[in-house]
């Protein structure tokens, strides 16, 4: 192997590694920048309202969306069942395969299925608890912005 081909192969490898690691890093930095811009914009709006003598509405308490648990749980449960089915289908009737390799798919399938079921149970528990909570009587969105009294 001559030195020029080694250099080209190593540069190509370095570029590929840099690209593979750069994409997630850039995505995280971009998400943080977007969140910072939204928070900064809300803060400027509130400050401008205060400067104009208006009372800004109190920040709303946002309840988290728990439907992500349902979606993630359903996907993991389905993947677990698929993994169990694939392991059972590949097992066959013969015993010529290594017994440790046969049950790895079953183990992973059961783990995925039980994690999916746990997430679905969390979804059901949170949903039941939210139904039993009293309704919030003060809706911030319906209150008009009233100006502050003039300063003496």
Provide the succession of SSEs: HHH
Q: Tally the helices: what do you get?
A: 3
Number of strands: 0
Gap from first CA to last CA: 87 Å
Q: What is the domain tally?
A: 2
- Estimate the global geometry from the Cα principal axes: flat
Calculate the mean pLDDT score and round it: 78
Class from helix and strand fractions: mainly alpha
Which percent bin holds the helix content?
Answer: over 70%
Biggest sheet descriptor: none
Unreliable stretches covering 5 or more consecutive residues: none
Rg calculated over all Cα atoms: 28 Å
List the helices and strands and how they pair.
Elements: H1 3-51, H2 67-91, H3 99-132
Describe this entry's structure for a reader:
With 152 residues, the protein is mainly alpha-helical. The protein has 2 domains: 7-61; 67-132. 71% of the residues lie in helices and 0% in strands. It has helices at 3-51, 67-91, 99-132. The longest helix is centred in the N-terminal third of the chain and has 49 residues, at 3-51. The radius of gyration is 28 Å and the shape is flat.
């Amino acid at each position: 192997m001559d030195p020029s081909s080694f250099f080209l192969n190593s540069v190509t490898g370095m570029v590929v590694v840099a690209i593979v690691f750069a994409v997630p890093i850039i995505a995280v930095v971009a998400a943080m920048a977007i969140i910072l811009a939204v928070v900064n914009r809300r803060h400027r709006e509130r400050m401008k309202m205060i400067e104009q003598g208006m009372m800004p509405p109190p920040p709303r308490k946002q309840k988290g969306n728990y439907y992500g648990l349902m979606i993630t749980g359903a996907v993991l449960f389905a993947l677990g069942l698929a993994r169990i089915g694939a392991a059972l289908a590949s097992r066959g009737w013969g015993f010529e395969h290594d017994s440790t390799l046969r049950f790895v798919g079953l183990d992973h399938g059961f783990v995925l299925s039980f994690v999916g079921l746990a997430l679905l149970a969390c979804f059901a528990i949170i949903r039941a608890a939210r139904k039993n909570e009293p309704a919030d009587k003060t809706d911030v969105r319906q209150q008009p912005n009233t100006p502050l009294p003039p300063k003496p």
